From TrEMBL:
Alphabetic keyword roster: Acyltransferase, Membrane, Transferase, Transmembrane, Transmembrane helix
Limits of the Acyltransferase domain: 22-402
Pfam families (alphabetical): Acyl_transf_3
Protein name: Acyltransferase
InterPro entries recorded: Acyl_transf_3_dom, Acyltransferase_3
Transmembrane annotation, as ranges: 28-49, 55-80, 110-134, 162-180, 192-209, 229-248, 269-286, 306-325, 345-364, 384-407
GO molecular function, one term: acyltransferase activity
Species of provenance: Actinomadura miaoliensis
Superkingdom, taxonomy of origin: Bacteria
Amino acid sequence: MANTEPPSGLGTIAPEGRHLPNLEGVRGLCASAVLFYHVAFAGGLLGMLNEPKDPFWGVVASGLEVFLPPFFVLSGFLLYRSFARATITGTPWPALGNFMWRRVLRIVPGFWVVTIVTLLVMNLHSINGIWYVLRPLLMLHSFKIENFPVGMEPTWTVTTEFAFYLVLPPFAWLIARYARRADDPVRRARRIMLPLAGFVAFGVVWHVYCSLPSLRQSSPFGMSDLTFWPPHYAGTFAIGMALAVLAVRAETAAEPPRLYRLVRQRPNLCWLAALAVFAVNLYKPFGPAAVPDWSGFTQAQIDYVLSLTFAALFVAPLTVPGVRWRFADAVLANAPVRFLGRISYGVYLWHMLVLDVAIGEGSINGRTAPMDPVAYQAAGMDVGMWPLLAITFFGTVAVAAASHYLFERPVARLGHRWPRAPRPVPDPALAPQQTG
């Protein structure tokens, strides 16, 4: 049961610099799910070539793919809400220079460290020139599947995240230009939703295009390079941005939208619905279950819509102002999950490297990466699924914690020290218009 409190004006949502325990916990939970998914393939729970291995755990593990989109939804919510507040209420526009500086320090240095270490530990024998090194450092490896260095396969999401950082300010400005034509906060919030709905539709169209058989058959990996390009997840960022708009509107309007009131009053219903979506996602009516193979065209569209729906339902009740939700606090705000959330970026970056080292992949083990997928899984099964999970999880946590406390956090503090953020100046064009 959730205890709710009515909105009490601006500031109900924690400001950008303040930690939100449940949202921090979401990152920890999602990062752990992604880690388990990859270990499940290496350990033999997931089959290959439409041949499932484990009828229960394999099916469960295959469904964990839905825990990736919530990362992007959270980014959309957390980063857009200051822009949404400025657009809806006429408060000062965020300092863009400081915004970008802090975003760069948040992900780039840590990404560079894991890139250099992975190239040396896993791909040393494959380095054939300076471009092989510069391509991942510049985040250009994500645009062609065959350019993914071994151990860095999941880092295409870093490129997607950074692309969102770059496009958010101009998109937010364009949205504000359109929304400010309305003369009250509620109408402005409604206007913002229109382009965001367009972003969701654009992401769906992009996914449909990426799923065309002609594109997949032309790739030796059975999937289009475009699948890993940033536009593929435009819809998830837009969902997070929409949640930010709803949160700001709930702060400023006497009567929030009816659907938003329902989420605020019955947040457990959202999570029950998310659980139902997760269960439906496990059953693949038009594709194989418990295998990591890419689904056929029809099943791919179903998977995409279900992943968007799950992410929205999972994150939405955690963004509602004034909710005291005991169940979510128990699941997400406990010390272990919050700790995982605190180091989640490192968990996400490092887990494939730790997994590959444990299996025996790469130059550190005297091999030229990558191993054949069948041999890769056979090596993982020799270690054993559950021992491999323990080695990967605890090894990753140790490395990620060291990275966070010894490197990432000290570097991130520079964002608060230099360069000094200029004092925000209100944009008169965005100020509420006086009537009467």
